[in-house]
Predict the structure.
Amino acid sequence: MKVSLLHPWNVTPPQAVLIQERLRAKILARGRVGRLHLVAGVDASFDLDRQQVYAAAIVLSFPDLEIVERAIHCDRLTFPYIPGLLSFREAPALLRALAQLRHDPDVVFVDGHGLSHPRRAGIACHVGLCVDRPVIGCAKSRLTGVFREPGLTRGATSKLYDVDGDVIGAVVRTRDCVKPVFVSVGHKIGLAKAVRLTLACGKGYRIPEPTRQADLAAERAKRERRS
């Protein structure tokens, strides 16, 4: 899978903020997503004792959501944990895992935020610009914004707003009576389509199957390296 390097990753936190502000203007919160054949998910696991990150990229068939390909990349952690700057800690390893893929997925899911970010440039946006294809951010917790709790049944949604009242994402119930997830645009897709695909890529779990499988693969890689 082709991955572009848009800027250096070895930067300071203030420089990282400036990069996000510059990239924000390039993000497309719309796009036509045709018939899907392959979907991918990326996630990472951290070994803080060894200061390493294990990134996994998983490709699944659609709509049956069976694993077609997986790639793992292990890298050294070089950027501190700072809320809002997750891209610079995690994305380099995720992108190297994606670059190993032989298949080109139609859509990529990222375990993290896209436009639902203080600078509207979360990790899903960053990955989207680097792979230049539709990317969806699906996070387990809110980073910014306000919302009303959606209904308790699967498929219930509510809008996530910023302080100015602009819609920056959606709060989506993926299982009955289970905590919702936070869906936002990463790149080249509209929010409504991102929500529909998040629900379509569920297999009975809270987390969509692409990122769920990526999470399992990253954790497995970490355990195997430590054993």
The helical segments are 13-24, 86-99, 123-131, 191-200, 209-226. The first helix runs from residue 13 to 24. The chain has a mean pLDDT of 96.
